[in-house]
């Protein structure tokens, strides 16, 4: 986890919503300048008190924060679900490697299909179904299977069925104990639950009526803001509008960006490609058998002796502290 310097993040544009809201921000700022010029040229005074308008701004900011929190909850839930996909993929692979058939070909095919589940989920959640979009899977399962995968209605379920068929063959042939087969089936079922949780987040956006009302409220607030403050702010009206509109528009856009944590077109989307690659490397590394264990007695720990503290020449001994007893 990279911790960047304060000034780096202050002026950083990549990963920021500033470029997205810049057009809206400029529009409201120019409108504030136009309002000031009209009031100054025609010597108009509105006589409005700004205190009531400040209360409205506080209510609007609270609504935007609630929306942002709702979006972050979706993002964080999706991250937890993908953490479960990582764990279940590793568990499922280890059960097959340790308790499944010892045939090298079966082990390799099994590991490759387990490693294919996470990228298949990634492509499915992003709406990538054509062969050109999932062609990278050929590095894991060859060229023919991605072509079949692109023609299925649900790619993660196709991968899960392949894994289930391999487990069934292993238990029917007697090369896998039924107890471990049931454990593998439990892990496989959890993978199905995880992709179902991701699809629930993807296909259940925040209530549109809530979004419409907040944006309409935000538009009206920023539209009448320069009219309300022009008497008090004077020629600083455009600057005040800019300083007020920037955080409000940014919070609104952040809430939108967090609604879909899977799309690469959204800022701060989940790094699904990196997560899938981590799963693949972990699973594929488990194909090879572990080397024989070296007993502890044959390889005792290496203990480093602490270096002796040098004694300075003509050094006087340290005074010994005297313990005083309470005589009362």
TrEMBL record:
The keyword Transmembrane applies. It is found in: Cell membrane. The chain crosses the membrane at residues 21-39, 51-70, 218-249. Its main location: membrane. The keyword Cell division does not apply. InterPro entries: YneE/VCCN1/2-like. GO terms for cellular component: plasma membrane. Keywords: Cell membrane, Ion transport, Membrane, Transmembrane, Transmembrane helix, Transport. GO terms for molecular function: chloride channel activity. It is a multi-pass membrane protein. Belongs to the anion channel-forming bestrophin (TC 1.A.46) family. This is Bestrophin. It comes from Bremerella cremea. The lineage of its organism: Bacteria, Pseudomonadati, Planctomycetota, Planctomycetia, Pirellulales.
């Amino acid at each position: 986890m990279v911790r960047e310097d304060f000034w780096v993040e202050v002026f950083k544009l990549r990963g920021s919503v500033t470029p997205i809201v810049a057009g809206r921000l400029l529009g409201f700022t120019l409108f504030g300048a136009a309002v000031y010029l009209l009031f100054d040229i025609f010597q108009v005074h509105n006589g409005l008190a700004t205190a009531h308008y400040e209360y409205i701004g506080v209510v609007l900011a609270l609504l935007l924060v609630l929306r942002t929190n709702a979006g972050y909850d979706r993002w964080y839930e999706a991250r937890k679900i993908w953490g479960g996909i990582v764990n279940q993929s590793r568990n499922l692979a280890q059960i097959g490697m340790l308790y499944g058939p010892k045939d090298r070909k079966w082990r390799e095919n099994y590991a490759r299909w387990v490693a294919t589940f996470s990228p298949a989920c990634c492509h499915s959640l992003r709406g990538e179904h054509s062969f050109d979009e999932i062609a990278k899977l050929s590095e894991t399962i060859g060229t023919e299977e991605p072509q079949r995968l692109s023609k299925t209605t649900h790619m993660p379920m196709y991968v899960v069925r392949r894994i289930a068929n391999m487990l069934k063959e292993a238990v029917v042939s007697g090369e896998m104990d039924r107890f471990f087969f049931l454990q593998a089936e439990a892990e496989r079922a959890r993978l199905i639950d995880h992709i179902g949780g991701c699809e629930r987040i993807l296909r259940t956006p925040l209530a549109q009526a809530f979004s419409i009302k907040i944006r309409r409220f935000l538009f009206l607030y920023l539209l009448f803001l320069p009219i309300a403050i022009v008497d008090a702010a004077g020629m600083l009206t455009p600057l005040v509008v800019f300083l007020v509109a920037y955080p409000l528009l940014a919070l609104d856009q952040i809430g939108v960006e967090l609604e879909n944590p899977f799309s690469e077109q959204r800022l701060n989307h989940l790094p699904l490609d990196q997560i899938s690659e981590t799963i693949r490397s972990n699973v594929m590394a488990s194909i090879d058998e572990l080397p024989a264990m070296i007993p502890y007695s044959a390889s005792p720990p290496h203990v480093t002796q602490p270096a002796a503290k040098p004694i300075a020449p003509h050094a006087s001994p340290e005074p010994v502290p005297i313990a005083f007893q309470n005589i009362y």
